[in-house]
Amino acid sequence: MNNIKMIVGLGNIGKKFIGSRHNMGSDYILNLSKKFNVKFKKIPKLFGYLSEIIVFNKKIILLIPDAFINNSGKSIHIVSHFYKIDLNNILIVHDELDFLPGIIKFKYGGSSGGHNGLKDIIKIFNSEFFYRLRIGIGYPNNKLKINNFLLSKPTKIEQKNINSILEYSIDSVLIFIKNENYNKAVTFLHSLLKKK
Questions:
Q1: Burial class (CB in 10 A: 0-12, 13-18, 19+), 151
Q2: Domains along the sequence of the chain with CATH
Q3: Banded pLDDT at 1 (limits 50, 70, 90)
Q4: pLDDT at 144
């Protein structure tokens, strides 16, 4: 059985970063909170913005670390310890350079793939065994311009492609939570991507 107890959205803190490619994770969590009509509260001792939702009678903690994306691990580690949640029960939502906009996939375990936010989490927990939801943002034409690309906003077409699967990906996360079944969630999301 796979039981998700906390969902974390990676991104950079600050209004100027909202809507940027690198903030896909934190923006996703904000979308999820709006669906359940809950708001985030900054809790300094936990180094993050927290909220909670009730899904099928299960309490799920929502977290946006109060840090730049490269330093996400500290807040996640502190919050997981505070709520006694194992890393294996955490879903990390983040941007993915290797997928085109409109492609969203689950993954369990594995390396950071060069994503500095994931790299920090793996380092602090000393483990790479956690669930991820990867939101495709595409790759810049020039490898040297990756930083600017990550910190800028998607084009209108890219955003439209991302929005086209966003709601379904939220549904797949809810399926994951309801059934405590990772494979069911993966199958559901994959079947929708094939129809696109």
A1: middle
A2: 6-195 (3.40.50.1470)
A3: low
A4: 66
